[in-house]
Amino acid sequence: MLDGDGKTDCAVFRASTGEWLLIQSTAGAATLTLGQAGDKPAQGDYDGDGKTDIAVFRPSNATWYITRSTLGSTSMVYGASTDRPVQGDYDGDGLTDIAVFTKTTGTWGLNRSTDGNTTVTLGSVNDIPAPADYDGDGKTDVAVYSPPISAAAGTWRISKSTDATLYTPNLGPKPRRPHRLRLHRSIKRKASQ
Ligand SMILES: [Ca+2]
Ligand SMILES: [Ca+2]
Ligand SMILES: [Ca+2]
Questions:
Q1: Which numbered ligand comes closest to the C-alpha of 95?
Q2: 188/111 Cα distance (integer angstroms)
Q3: If you measure from the C-alpha of residue 59 to the centroid of ligand 2, how many angstroms do you get, rounded to a whole number?
Q4: Cα–Cα distance between 103 and 35 in angstroms, integer?
C-alpha cells in the first residue's frame, strides 16, 4: 500500500539500477530511485502512517536505506554483509522493524521499534526465512521453510508470538507424481463411470 488506500499496489525493484517501478491504485504509475546494484529490497511501513516505504538493505556495508513516506529518508547500519533482510512488525506497534536472518547460524536479529533489540534462533543454512503474522495477533512471527530433501516433504517451523511455542504444520508427504497427472487420471476414471 504505497498510497495507503487499503489496496495493495504493484511494485517492482530493478536491482541493476535501483529503480522502483510502481503502479498505485490511486496515484497511477511512478518511478522512484533508491538503491544500487546488489541491494536487496526491504520495503515496509517504517513510520507507521499506513503507506509502504521503499527501502533497501545494502550487503556491502550492512546498511539499510529507507525513504519514509512521512518522516523522510534515513539510514542505519544493522546486520552483516551475508545476512538477509527479514523486516516485519515483530512487536506489533504498527511500525515495520529492521531485522536480519543469518543463515549460517539460524540467528534472527530483530531491531524492534518499541521493544528494542533482540535475537531469536530458528533455522539453518538451507532454510528460507518466511516471517509473517501466522497467529493473527498483529505481531510478525519468526518462521522458516525447509525445502524438501529427496522424498521427504518440505517443513515449516513457526515461532508463534502469542506464546512462543513452535508450530510445525504438516503439509503431507511430497507427491511422487505431479498433481497434474493425478488429476488427469481421476478425470478419466469419472468419465469411464
Ligand atoms: Ca510509511
Ligand atoms: Ca514494530
Ligand atoms: Ca503473530
A1: 2
A2: 55
A3: 22
A4: 23
Per-residue pLDDT of the chain (193 residues; tens, 9 = 90+): 667 777 788 889 998 888 888 887 777 888 888 999 999 999 999 999 999 999 999 999 999 999 999 999 999 999 999 999 999 999 999 999 999 999 999 999 999 999 999 999 999 999 999 999 999 999 999 999 998 877 677 899 999 999 989 999 877 665 555 455 444 454 455 555 5
Ligand 2 centre to CA of 117 (Å) is: 11
Q: 188: CA distance to ligand 2 center in Å?
A: 53
> Is the entire prediction scored with pTM above 0.85?
no
Beta-sheet pairing, 72-77 with 128-129:
unpaired
Contacts of 149 (CB under 8 A, 6+ apart): none
Point out the ligand nearest to the CA of residue 99.
2
